[in-house]
Design a protein that fits this description.
elongated; six-stranded parallel β-sheet; 44% helix
C-alpha cells in the first residue's frame, strides 16, 4: 500500500518505519525542515532502541522516504495517518488539537480519490467528527473516510509493541475504511494480533481509558508503598501477592517516584477535562492526577529527610533523569520536580543519565551533568536512583564508598536490597519497604 504519515515525531516515525518494514511504501512528512533533512541523512531525532536500524534498512530498500511537502505523498496515498502532537493546552489542561486540525485543513486540499484519513494522535472523544467536518468544509468534493486508530506504544519498547500488539483498535463510521485498514495491518495476521473494530468515538475513548487505568494502578501501588513504610510492610511483596490474582495482574505495580512521560500526565488530564465538559466527572482519575503530582515533589522531601535536618549546601547525586529507562524523553519526568525541590531547599545537584542529559538541560538549571555514575557521586552526601537504567543495576559500591562524602543510597526504584548494600557500609532508603528506624520501632512495640 501507499501510505503517508503526517508528523515525524515519536509516534509518526515509529509507525512509519514499522509500516515500511511490513512492505508498504511509506512517506513520513513533517514541517520541521531540519528534522526531515536529518532523517534523510540517517540521523534519528529521538532515542528508541532498534529504531535507527529499522529506518536505515527501509530507506535503503526504498520503502521509507521523508518529505516536508504533503501534496505529492498524500495525493498518491490510499491511507494517511495523522500523527502530530496533542500537548496539554496552556491554561486549562485540555488537549491542544490545533496541530491535528491544521493537518486536516491541509489534507483537504491535496487528497485525490478515495482516501482513508487515520487519526493516530491521542485525541479526545469527538475529534474524529471535527476532523471530518473540517475536511468536508474545506473541500466538499473530498472523498474521505476518517478513522480513529490510537497507538499503544511504550517508549523503550515501541518497535516490539507495534509489531506484536495486544490489540489494534480501529474506529470507523464508513464501512469502506474496513478493508483498507485490514490491509494496512494484514502483515500482523501471522502474529494473530486482534483487530478490534468499534465506532470512532468508542475508539477514541479506549485509548484514554487504557492510559487512565494504568496510571491509576501506578498511583495505587505508590500509595500502598507509603502505607507499607508506615506499618512495616514490604510493597514489593504486596504487589506480588495481589498481582498473582488474574483479575489484577502484576504489570504497572512497581512503586516509585510517580509516573511521567509524554502520555500518562497529559492524557489523564485531558480525560478529566473532557469528562467535566460532559458533566460526567471521573473522580478516580482526578485523584490520580493530583496524587501523582504531589508524589514527585514528595520524593525531594524523602531524599532530604534521609540526608538530615538541613540539606542546604549538601551535594546530591542523581542517577537517571528520564521518566523511564531506554528513552531520552524528559517530559513530566519525576526528576524535574525532585531536582527543583532539592534546589529550593539549598542542595547542590550532580546528575548522570545514559541518554537524557541533553534533553534535561531544557528542563533544569544549575545542575552539574557528569560522564558516569561515579563522577556524579564524587563528594556527594547522597546518591539517588531516580530511573532504573540497566547501567545502575550493578554499581561498584566499594568504589562509591571511596568517592562519596557520606555513604547514603536513596533507591526510588527498589533496584537493590538493604542487606546487599549494608555490607559496603551504606545507609539505604527505598520505596515502600521498612527503614531500619521503623523496623526498630515496630520491634519495640511488639516486645
Amino acid at each position: 500500500m501507499r501510505i503517508a504519515v503526517v508528523g515525524s515525531g515519536y509516534v509518526g516515525l515509529v509507525s512509519g518505519a514499522c509500516l515500511a518494514d511490513f512492505g508498504h511504501e511509506v512517506v513520513c512528512i513533517d514541517s520541521d525542515v531540519s528534522k526531515i533533512e536529518a532523517l534523510k541523512e540517517g540521523v534519528i531525532p529521538i532515542y528508541e532502541p532498534g529504531l535507527d536500524e529499522i529506518v536505515l534498512k527501509n530507506v535503503k530498500a526504498g520503502r521509507l522516504q521523508f518529505s516536508t511537502s504533503l501534496e505529492e505523498p498524500v495525493s498518491q496515498a490510499e491511507a494517511v495517518f495523522i500523527a502530530v502532537g496533542t500537548p496539554s493546552r496552556r491554561g486549562d489542561g485540555h488537549a491542544d488539537l490545533s496541530y491535528v486540525y491544521d493537518v486536516a485543513r491541509q489534507l483537504a486540499r491535496v487528497v485525490r480519490g478515495f482516501t482513508v484519513v487515520i487519526t493516530k494522535s491521542t485525541v479526545p472523544v469527538g475529534t474524529g467528527d471535527e476532523v471530518e467536518r473540517i475536511i468536508r468544509e474545506a473541500n466538499p468534493n473530498a472523498d474521505v473516510a476518517v478513522v480513529s486508530n490510537p497507538e499503544f506504544l511504550r517508549e523503550g519498547a515501541a518497535i516490539e509493541d507495534f509489531k506484536r500488539p495486544d490489540r489494534i483498535v480501529i474506529g470507523v463510521e464508513d464501512d469502506r475504511a474496513r478493508p483498507v485498514m485490514t490491509e494496512v495491518y494484514r502483515p500482523l495476521y501471522l502474529n494473530k494480533a486482534p483487530l478490534v473494530f468499534t465506532t470512532r468515538r468508542t475508539s477514541e475513548l479506549i485509548k484514554y481509558a487504557a492510559n487512565a487505568f494504568l496510571a491509576m494502578k501506578i498511583t495505587f501501588i505508590n500509595e500502598m508503598a507509603d502505607l507499607c513504610e508506615a506499618v512495616g510492610g514490604n510493597v514489593q511483596d504486596v504487589a506480588h501477592g495481589i498481582g498473582l490474582d488474574g483479575r489484577i495482574g502484576g504489570k504497572f505495580l512497581h512503586a516509585g517516584p510517580g509516573y511521567g512521560g509524554s502520555c500518562f500526565p497529559k492524557d489523564t488530564l485531558a480525560l478529566v477535562k473532557t469528562a467535566q465538559d460532559y458533566a460526567s466527572p471521573l473522580r478516580l482519575v482526578e485523584t490520580t492526577v493530583a496524587v501523582n503530582d504531589q508524589r514527585k515533589r514528595a520524593m525531594a522531601r524523602k531524599v532530604a529527610r534521609a540526608i538530615g535536618a538541613d540539606v542546604r549546601g549538601k551535594t546530591v547525586a542523581l542517577l537517571g533523569l528520564t521518566f523511564k529507562p531506554n528513552t531520552d524523553d524528559m517530559r513530566d519526568a519525576p526528576s524535574i520536580a525532585i531536582v527543583q525541590g532539592l534546589q529550593d531547599a539549598g542542595a547542590k545537584i550532580r546528575a548522570f543519565d545514559p541518554e537524557g542529559m541533553n534533553a534535561a538541560r531544557d528542563y533544569m538549571s544549575d545542575v552539574t551533568f557528569t560522564t558516569d555514575p561515579y563522577a556524579a557521586a564524587e563528594g556527594a552526601d547522597a546518591l539517588v536512583i531516580v530511573t532504573e537504567w540497566d547501567a545502575f543495576r550493578a554499581l561498584d559500591f566499594r568504589r562509591l564508598r571511596g568517592t562519596m562524602k557520606s555513604p547514603l543510597l536513596v533507591d526510588l526504584r527498589n533496584v537493590y536490597r538493604r542487606d546487599l548494600i549494608a555490607v559496603h557500609g551504606f545507609r539505604y532508603v527505598s520505596i515502600g519497604r521498612p527503614t531500619e528506624d521503623i523496623a526498630a520501632e515496630l520491634g519495640a512495640v511488639a516486645e
